[in-house]
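LAB NOTEBOOK - FOLDING QUEUE
OPERATOR: T.R.
BATCH SIZE: 2
PURPOSE: Compare the predicted structure-token outputs for two unrelated chains run back to back under identical settings.
PRIORITY: normal
REVIEWER: second-year student, initials M.K.

ITEM 1
FIELD SEQUENCE / FIELD STRUCTURE:
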Amino acid sequence: MSQPPSTAGRFLRETVRHSAAPAAAVLVVSVLLAVTELALPAVLGRTLDLLLTGRHGEAGTWLATCAGLTVAAVALGALDGVTAAVGGAQATARIRRRVLGHLLDSGPRAGERFAHGDLVARLVGNAAQAGTVPVALAALLAAAVTPLGGIAALALTDVRTALVVLAGMPVLALFLKVFARTFGDSGTRYLRAQGEIAGRLTEALRGIRTIAAAGNHERDAARVLAPLAEMSRQGHRLWRVLGRSSAQSAVLLPLLQIAVLAVAGLRVAAGELSVGGMLTAWRYAVLATGTGALVGHVSALVRGRNAATRLGEVLDVPVTAYGPITRLPPGKGTVEFVGVTSRRADREVLSGIDLRLPGGTAVAVVGRSGSGKSALATLAGRLTDPDTGTVLLDGVPLTSLTREALRRETGYAFERPALLGGTVGGTIAFGTHDPGEAAVVDAARAACADGFVRRLPDGYDTACADAPLSGGEAQRLGLARAFAHAGRLLVLDDATSSLDAVTELKVSRALLLGAGTRTCLIVAHRASTAARADLVVWLEDGAVRAVAPHAHLWRLAPYRAVFAEEAVDAA
């Protein structure tokens, strides 16, 4: 039974297919260049024979032809370089758009599977290497014209010298095969180590304050660069492979060319070949045995294939599929979890959750660290899907909604919001639809952000890069964005942790003002936050331990201990 094609294989074929036009241009120009180079030895040989026999008048025409072919070769070589560069750049840009689009469509899954720095390395460096494949493939096909044409032309010039070259071709083919296999294995290991360094560097930059405070930068630098030893081993191995290939070619090719000269010389001595014919035979032997271009193109293809394999691993991450329903039935945001189980890194973070959150209520989710609070919040608005079970919003499975309908009805705010709108106002308006200037200002007021935004140099038009925001101010912008796009469900995943008590109280009151028209799901770490909610979902070890008002649960010592532990962790 034949195996299904790998993602990397399909991805490479797709890349080549979409780059057919520039690759064809490279192929045509390269073939024309090869034909020009193949024509030149015959013309040179004819010119030499005419000069040696004193036919200088005819020789002038052939000299002009030599000059024309030389100029054409130079021009075609320059055009080949430009065409190859443009084709590679276009393919690289398309690959980056394709992989980035898939990465964003997959949601948080890719970030859980790959280190962020590794993803950047794949998207930047590996995409550039994979982008050379269409052009390298076309160039390799064109490069094969030169040795094959050289052998054919050599056979037309003198069959015996052609047989000498053909005798060495199997050895050259074996060299190329061994080179491609060894080079590919080392290249894969090299790229993997490179990605590990990029991933560790990103982690170190994210925790740069901790590293500086601990004063152990040398130890962390050693940790980041630990894969450098593997990179060095594989890099040296690559150079050894290239060196061995060059050495083998340096021995075999001159021997073949000398053998051709020897045979051609004997033919000249016997009067069976002219001096110009000997020059022609030697030049064609050089072209027929010129495997340097082939090695270069093969190595580019191998590097591109290895890079495509790493990009294929990203493309293997499933994307979120959406349904056909564009509008929910009337409701206030009732959320239901039916038999929901969620796993991360082969560990169940939520197990068999059956839970119904009444529409129009404020629900706090509490529990010890690792109890599954963030996982529940992530599933509620379908940032990820459960491994088993179903999540419904007003009776409709979230998987049945279109992307636009889902994001129109659900809003999120996080502990560390990303400011993606360009300007402060754009950050608040960032979403599937623009809520309008009035809604942006109202949302900022509800999140207690309007005051500090108006003090910025350009107010709501201030570029985020020019706005020095504290952690609490950034969190308030994230809350404002959630308020501006809140539909039936608003999820706050530790989104008030950086707010002072007074601001947190004001934001909570704004949330409660919206109660009755939408459901608010709040991951709570403070007892005061849970106390202001209508209901509390108490999680323990990935399961629901209790659902009840905070006042009722507060009578239980284990419940009070949850907040005591949270306070210790926060301290």
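ITEM 2
FIELD SEQUENCE / FIELD STRUCTURE:
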Amino acid sequence: MIAEPDGPEDRLRRFATIWSRAVFPATSTSLTRPEFEELLLPLARRLSEALRARTFEAEEGKAVGAALVSAHCTDPDALTRSLECVDAYLVLYCGGDGSQEDLRIRSARLQHAMAAGFAQALRERTLAEQEAISVAALQAQGVVAQALHATEARFRAVFEGAAIGIGMADLDGNILQVNGALLRMFGINDQTMGGRNVREWTHPDDAPQTWTLYDELVRGEREHYHVEKAFYRPDGTVLWTNLTVSLLRDADGNPQYQLALMEDTTERRLLNLRLRYEATHDALTGLPNRTLFFERLEKALGAGNNQRFGLCYLDLDGFKTINDSLGHAAGDRLLVEVADRLQSCATAPGEMVARLGGDEFVALTTGPDTEREVDELAGRIMNALITPVSIDGRDLTVRGSIGIVEGPAGERGPAEVLRSADITMYRAKSAGGNRFELADPEADARAITRHGLTTALPAALDRNEFFIEYQPLVHLGDGSVRGAEALVRWLHPQHGVLGPDRFIPLAEHTGLIVPLGRWVLEQSVRQARAWRETYGDAVPLRINVNLSPCQLTHPGLVQDTVDILERTGVAPDALCLEVTESALIGADDDLLKPLRRLAEMGVDIALDDFGTGYSNLANLRRLPVSILKLDRSFTQSMQQFPADPVDLKIVEGIVSLAHSLNLAVTVEGVETGAQAEQLRILGCDTAQGWFYARPGPPERLHDLALVDATG
């Protein structure tokens, strides 16, 4: 049994709730279920009032049915559920105390009225929607017609007035229509274009994928493609274009036409080619420049299939002298003539000549047999330079040095190959020039090492990587230690301990020899002071320090020496500066002046490597030297018994001459006791060599001197 609510309003609310729950699932509304219940509440009130009215009004039921349509309850199931709800609950909740029979009759009549009102409202709504759709369709049709007309007019205007060429063809390639710009690009008229087919426009420079893309487009497999394409004009000239081809489909999506857009890029391409030529060719000689040469070399080195390459690196000998004496204009004319001759030497397939800059040229040959071809190419180049070049009425002899690198492709990069050729060329130049040399990996490695050492020298001095070893100087008469020669060493982080022959020439070349020599002098003089403080006057040790030719010409030599001696508190007679004989050959008074000043102060000057410079012995009288150091080449034969009598006479004569000039004689390279004894007999004063001690730390000299001092 259903419990009745207390008041009429509560019963009405309960009926609306039941109605909303029954109909809501069948509605098409954005309202929530409680919101939908509030929408049905006034309809429920109208039904309740019509049920209990004195006279029955069917219009109320029609109004409620129409209201359901307005509330989007247009689904037939919504009407069915509403009628079932009214039939079951309207009398129960809204009938009051009236006759149940009469109330049910009225309820049935209200249901019929609701159904009629619902049907009428739904029909009117459907008709209204159909009318709206028809009107919209007519309006749309008019708009589309206008749009199509406007679009066609705009297309025609664009087609005829476009600056780019436009053409349309069917899927078989038959040309249907072209615009004026395209006709002007090809230099033809519309009649000439008629009957042409797209496939007639092939060109040897077509990219491989051009016609593949075209076939895919006409088959409907792609919508468009873009390529750079060349066309022949009727007059035989070439038209270059940026070509875009698009596929046009019909209303059903089937391929129907092809549309081509062409932009004339001929002038731009010619300009780009000109700029490319200027960027890759030497302005003076017209030869390929470094940029183009590297591209060709990289391509040659990347080739496979047992391909090889040969490279000739040419540098003219003495070109700077020609520039300095005759001027740069004459030098330029010489370079042009050399370039023409080189160009005539490299005419075979796979050969090219380029100018890298200045007076440096390269010739490249590629192929399977470059071992023979590169030698022949170098020979042709050398022969081409034999004939003098006439410049301003002067016949100039042209000489050149060539470095040759040859090998299989794929093993080295362009930079490595060119570096090897450059190193080899300088090796040919160092050997006298006017020749060619073949690359040697070991020589390359030595040159690269020298370059690495050269660049590392300045930092090495700052990082205190240099140290000094000392080789004792022994008196031949009594065997006592009289001093030591300071020999600088470099403790390189990668190469270990390097002797002076590895880095002193590099230091002289870079100018670092001056600060390095100053450092060696100061460290050596400080060591001399330490020895004298240890042994006093009992063992008057003297330090010998080598001077390079660069140091001799440095204006600060004398002042630096004075400052170091004063700063360390060492007397000048504790220092001996060794200068090679070759450095003083032909020396003028300006070069000798610093040495004379040092000698006047009490510093001994030794003439090192005496006998190797082929100097005039009469020059000894004008040199401020007090010691001659005989080169080891004079005494090597004395290591065995009997000694070469010629060498004995030479040494005896030198010693006699030196003593007559009040010069002491020191001998280098003493390695045996027999050699030392023979030198003593000949009258030599002091000696040094492995027989006494190898160069070592200063502590070793302490030990030797201590033995002498203690007997």
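REVIEWER COMMENT (ITEM 2): The mean pLDDT is 85.
FOLLOW-UP: none requested
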